[in-house]
Amino acid sequence: MDSELADAIAREVGAHPSVVRLDGGPVGTLATHLPGRRIAGVRVAGPGEPVDVGVVLRLGERLPEVTGELRELVRGVAGEVAVNIEVTDVVAPSTADGTAATPR
């Protein structure tokens, strides 16, 4: 169950237009550990437990609005649980796709 839930949360959050990528945090501990793999950036501890999500976002969006949207996406998948969104980094739109920013 944790595997399906963590995968579904990762898909929904990763598809949000402001999310560059899921992120496990500075030491990679924000993750769901499963047999033979781990889902970095999503921690699902168990039924009724809070869900933790780590993301890198695109610069230019209002962070409180984006994190609120992400919480609602997670609740749409996980149900009415506490959801913690950790913004681990914010990158400029020109570097979010991996290309270098052009100096002006």
Q: Would you write up a description of this structure?
A:
- Strands 1, 4, 5 and 6 form a 4-stranded mixed β-sheet that branches. This protein has a two-stranded antiparallel sheet with strand order 2-3.
- The protein has a single domain, classed as GMP Synthetase, Chain A, domain 3 (2-Layer Sandwich).
- The N and C termini lie far apart (50 Å).
- The C terminus is likely disordered.
- It has 104 residues and is α+β, with helices and mostly antiparallel strands.
- 32% of the residues lie in helices and 31% in strands.
- It is globular and about 35 Å long.
What is this entry, summarized?
This protein has helices at residues 2-14, 63-78, 93-96; strands at residues 19-22, 31-34, 37-40, 42-44, 51-58, 83-91. The protein is an alpha+beta fold and 104 residues long.
Task: From the structure above, extract its key features.
single chain; 104 residues; alpha+beta; GMP Synthetase, Chain A, domain 3; four-stranded mixed beta sheet; 3 helices; 6 strands; globular; disordered C terminus
Number of domains: 1
Describe the largest sheet: 4 strands, mixed
Q: What fold name goes in the CATH topology slot?
A: GMP Synthetase, Chain A, domain 3
Shape: globular
Any idea what the CATH superfamily is called?
A: ANL, C-terminal domain
Please report the first level of CATH classification, the CATH class.
Answer: Alpha Beta
Look at the structure and give the mean pLDDT: 88
The whole-angstrom Rg is 14 Å
Class from helix and strand fractions: alpha+beta
The total count of helices amounts to: 3
Series of secondary-structure elements, N-terminal to C-terminal:
HEEEEEHEH
Q: Give the name of the CATH architecture.
A: 2-Layer Sandwich
Q: How far apart lie the N and C ends?
A: 50 Å
- Oligomer designation: single chain
